[in-house]
Amino acid sequence: MPPVIETQELTKRYGRRPALVDCSIAIPPGRIAGLVGPNGAGKSTLLALTCGLITPTEGRITVLGGAPGVNAAQLARVGFVAQDAPVYSGLSVADHLRLGARLNPRWDDGLARRRIERLGLDPDQKAGRLSGGQRAQLALTIAAAKRGELLILDEPVASLDPIARRTFLYDLLDFVGELGVTVVLSSHLLGDLAQVCDHLIVLGGGRVQIAGDVADILAVHHRIAADRSGAGGLPSGAQVVFTDRGVSGGSTIVRSAEPIPGAEHTDLEDIGMAYMMAAEARR
Ligand SMILES: Nc1ncnc2c1ncn2[C@@H]1O[C@H](COP(=O)(O)OP(=O)(O)OP(=O)(O)O)[C@@H](O)[C@H]1O
């Protein structure tokens, strides 16, 4: 199956300022891909390129086999929820569904109504009076009912409390299972992404630090005590990603296809953080 999103040496500059540099990624179909990186790392730029809202300065990007946003048919296949879950505050929940039905040729009204009911949203409530979590859920419902093949969510949980975040993410999981779509989800909250993502892209300073399926990433990363991180004690080909000296003597995340005797389990949160810290340290 060809990737849903594929980029080759994709670069975007605003004027002379590079926002994304030589980005080469491939997201296979059916994945929930997490996109993380510190402020200004290039996440929104990559998502905007994916939706065709902006065009590359150099390199190539293919979305669902074509140029992003090239025509109405292509746009109909992609659902996009921008940062802060934009909704029309003067319109009611029901008005949003009516607008969605009018604007989207493949609109799934049954799906939209079922979700609104399940979430307990009052159809007559004005969107401006919904809570942040409810607004995020409404925006996700509209993007989903478009019945596209790719859902792009730019920091959809940023303004939500931990309970609303958890509900939103588990709901997303359910619904990806139901619709079989591919999702790209950006967030600063690595712990949240680790719960739902099976593909990860870490950006730092506009460059891809690591990208791939979560299972593959976990298989080649190890945590060892900081004082063992001298290259002498590691298998050949091992790469020290980052040493964090702050936590009880410190620890080092190492990338190695070979097992490392005595290494501890590490998780996606630690690995993502190590790549981001390493990128920051190089700047
Ligand atoms: N329209 C623009 N004009 C000029 N520079 C921009 C524009 N949009 C983004 N940038 C710059 O490009 C870089 C990447 O920005 P981007 O918004 O993609 O990062 P981000 O990872 O989404 O950040 P955040 O986590 O803060 O939302 C930053 O240095 C930013 O200042």
TrEMBL record:
<feature type="domain" description="ABC transporter">
    <location>
        <begin position="5"/>
        <end position="230"/>
    </location>
</feature>
<comment type="similarity">
    <text>Belongs to the ABC transporter superfamily.</text>
</comment>
<dbReference type="GO" id="GO:0005524">
    <property type="term" value="F:ATP binding"/>
</dbReference>
<protein>
    <submittedName>
        <fullName>ABC transporter ATP-binding protein</fullName>
    </submittedName>
</protein>
<keyword id="KW-0547">Nucleotide-binding</keyword>
<dbReference type="InterPro" id="IPR003439">
    <property type="entry name" value="ABC_transporter-like_ATP-bd"/>
</dbReference>
<dbReference type="InterPro" id="IPR003593">
    <property type="entry name" value="AAA+_ATPase"/>
</dbReference>
<keyword id="KW-0067">ATP-binding</keyword>
<dbReference type="Pfam" id="PF00005">
    <property type="entry name" value="ABC_tran"/>
</dbReference>
<keyword id="KW-0813">Transport</keyword>
<dbReference type="InterPro" id="IPR027417">
    <property type="entry name" value="P-loop_NTPase"/>
</dbReference>
